[in-house]
Design a protein that fits this description.
The protein is of the alpha/beta class. Helix content is 46%, strand content 15%.
Length: 435
Amino acid sequence: MRVPDIIMKKRDGHVLSPEEIRYMIGGMLSQDVPDYQMSAFCMAIFFQGMTPEETTALTTAMADSGRRADLSAIRGIKVDKHSTGGVGDTTTLVLVPMVAAAGVPVAKMSGRGLGHTGGTLDKLESIPGFRVSLSEREFVDQVNRIGLAIVGQTEDIAPADKRLYALRDVTATVESIPLIASSIMSKKLATGADAIVLDVKAGTGAFMHELDRARRLARAMVDIGRLAGRRMAAVISDMNQPLGQAIGNSLEVIEAIDTLSGRSAGRLLQLCLELGAHMVVLGGAARDTAQARAVLSGLVESGAALAKLREMVKAQGGDATCVDDPSRIGAAPLSEQITAPTDGYVSRVDALTLGRAAAAMGAGRQRKTDSVDLHCGLKVLVSVGDRIEAGQPVATLYAGSQPRLREGTAQAGPAFAYSDAPCSAPPLVYEIIER
């Protein structure tokens, strides 16, 4: 095979064979295919797209470029969940204990936050002592023992994806649906789950701003998973306003505990019930999503879901008393409120603006090597459609220094808009894709 012939074939809109795709990925890793040829290859994909079979072949080649986690020793159907990222998106910390309490093992490998989106590992590390690094043997044993574990992804998972993404980032090919789908799913396939539920965000605070592009991405990833032999479902959910009230690592952990304790029942809980219902059905523990949703609601009400979170925190070295007294996790010492300037209705709570404000106060990172302040962030006190009065607090910000607090307040203020007339909130779930 010749690299120019493969590039030309895709440039002209023809379908590549799995062997040709694997040849390109292998050559990139061995450096037999130089960056300028891989860049041309990505651009050809950008303009011509890929069939589901091609995208699956690309995904599999990237998943096979490193170590695949061996979770075969875990009993039962192992179900994973992936979110395409958002603001106030604390679903993993609520979902994993709920689903595990329903009898479905969840062996979750998560990442860190970047930009305006939060990372599950950063959130968990705001619990004193919590270990996000376990050996594969420890990981498997813990899931078999208590039904759940959340750990960090190792560097040898899908290394081709890291190389390819670095090229896409500097060649204006990041937005390609096949390249995005294969990037996400290569890591999911390599981490060993039998079934995967995808939470694909659409809106200002999401990677996919437009619903149509979110739908196309969701369908592409479901196709990849099914062609690779996985049980799949995708939920397309709203990210025009933050999912939960809390934005920031320790604040989101506290909100997750409050949600599992039954003290909070907003959009976060509703989406977790939706996602969790699909996970439970794919895991074989319920006949349909209605039954699964009822089971999960009961586990929250009974305290069993919260008990699972407590078990996981204790098993991974964290201070489990924080689950019963989340004030021990704490927030940054300085705070300030943003208030409504007039009577009326909340017409906008812009997720992207608030995520950037939290990052500016130290809750996020621009580069993977940046450190984060685990205790700063903000709480959003209103949602789109709420009736408000002049002077009513709409958000409370927390920071470790006055300059950062001022910067966060200045950035967060424009996220809120108001209307004299009543307005309705966008739907929480736009669409569910199962085939």
